[in-house]
Specification:
48% of the residues lie in helices and 13% in strands. It is α+β, with helices and mostly antiparallel strands. Strand 6 and strand 7 form a beta hairpin. Helix 3 crosses helix 5, helix 4 runs parallel beside helix 6 and helix 8 runs antiparallel to helix 10.
């Protein structure tokens, strides 16, 4: 896109605004970027026993191709944890023995790891045994003592999982929302500059479609099909529950379409990834022929997708702004806790709870949000679902 230069005056201050489409550096945490395949292969190679028999290259490639990138990254992280524990214990990481795995599970339990985390790490350890043909005749993670150890921890500690704080719509959809962060409050807190237009479009589209962050960051301009009534449909080519990439569709409100179009008009993005990083550079400038100092604001639009950490940071930054502007009411001392509870899953949880509050059932909600089973939807909205279940509907008519 060509550079766009505009001048405006507000409260006597001259401002130059410049928009550039550039390749912003990707923000990384920790080690340098590498593919999920290479990271997992490197982790496995560092753990493999020296006397390991040759494995099938085709078998390894097939196993990797069957996994999602997020799954491979999680397995690599879990294996690194097991490797470090083995080093501390002075033992070889592979092949693992059932007794060693139980000791490992107990050590993680003592450190306060959740039962779901323990189960995932044991599953990852089982995966590497199968990939390296070490699961003969069966993986040590399937041993009865390992299963009993996990079962005992679940029974003692329970299996309830910490849920992301919901970002519900607010407004008049549910009068029971009295305080806390809502989507409406965050949208009102979005500024009218380039970054604010992107943030508002990101929030609005993510809520309407109930997107996972992996889906939200992959939305492209061409995925949106506008309708005559102002609404639109969004094509979702890939998701966590659609590994074969059959694709799915979601509905977008007319309000969301307007916000997306405002972001596109300001950014010049008409194809490719819709949500990208926006860099802001503010500095003093005195253009030729001008007598007064001016503020030059340069907005740099990246070419790569936002990261999970980037989206999480956007939500929390806007939440702080909403609170500072008086758009949100929170109990004294609860601000930081409420902000930290927000995550990339908050919009999806919020939409689920709003649909339950509106009286929709778990099956319909699971279909709308592309879950393979209503069980997850019921877990997110189990408290609100009570107000629309059969007992509530029948008794509300006779016990007034």
């Amino acid at each position: 896109m060509k550079d766009d230069l505009a001048k405006s005056c507000a409260a006597g201050t001259a401002v130059l605004v410049k928009v550039e489409n550039v390749s912003l550096p990707t923000r990384l945490r920790g080690e340098s970027r590498e593919s999920s395949d290479m990271r997992l292969v490197r982790t496995i190679a560092a753990m493999a026993p020296l006397d390991l028999s040759p494995i099938s290259k085709l078998g390894l490639e097939t196993a990797l191709s069957a996994m999602a990138d997020a799954t491979k990254a999680a397995i690599a992280s879990d294996l690194a944890c097991w490797r470090d524990w083995c080093q501390d214990e002075g033992m070889a990481p592979l092949p693992a023995g059932p007794e060693d795995i139980v000791r490992y599970v107990n050590a993680l339990d003592a450190r306060g790891k959740k039962p779901s985390t323990l189960a995932r790490r044991i599953a990852s350890l089982g995966s590497v045994h199968r990939v390296l043909d070490l699961a003969t005749p069966a993986s040590p993670t399937d041993a009865p003592m390992v299963r009993n150890a996990l079962k005992g921890i679940r029974r003692r500690r329970g299996v309830s999982q910490r849920q992301a704080a919901p970002l519900r719509l607010g407004k008049a959809l549910d009068p029971h929302i009295a305080q806390g962060f809502t989507l409406a409050a965050l949208l009102d807190a979005c500024a009218g500059d380039l970054q604010g237009l992107r943030d508002a479009a990101l929030l609005s589209l993510g809520y309407d479609a109930g997107l996972r962050v992996s889906e939200l960051t992959r939305v492209e301009a061409g995925h949106i099909d506008c309708q005559n009534d102002g609404a639109a449909t969004l094509f979702i080519p890939y998701s966590k529950t659609d590994q074969e990439q059959e694709g799915a569709w979601a509905w977008l409100s007319a309000e969301t379409v307007r916000r997306v179009q405002a972001w596109q008009a300001a950014s010049g993005i008409q194809e490719g990834l819709l949500f990208r990083r926006v860099g802001i550079d503010r500095r003093r400038a005195r253009p030729s022929g001008e007598t007064a100092d001016m503020t030059l604001i340069t907005y740099s639009i990246g070419n790569t997708a936002l990261t999970r950490q980037g989206v999480n940071g956007i939500y929390r930054r806007i939440a702080m702004t909403a609170y500072e502007q008086g758009l949100v009411t929170l109990p004294a001392g609860k601000l930081l806790e409420a902000v930290r509870a927000l995550s990339t899953h908050s919009l999806r949880v919020g939409l689920t709870q709003d649909l339950f509050a509106a009286g929709e059932d778990g099956v319909g909600i699971a279909q709308a949000l592309r879950w393979s089973s209503p069980a997850t939807a019921l877990r997110y909205g189990r408290k609100l679902a009570v107000r629309s279940n059969v007992a509530a509907r029948v008794l509300a008519r006779v016990r007034r």
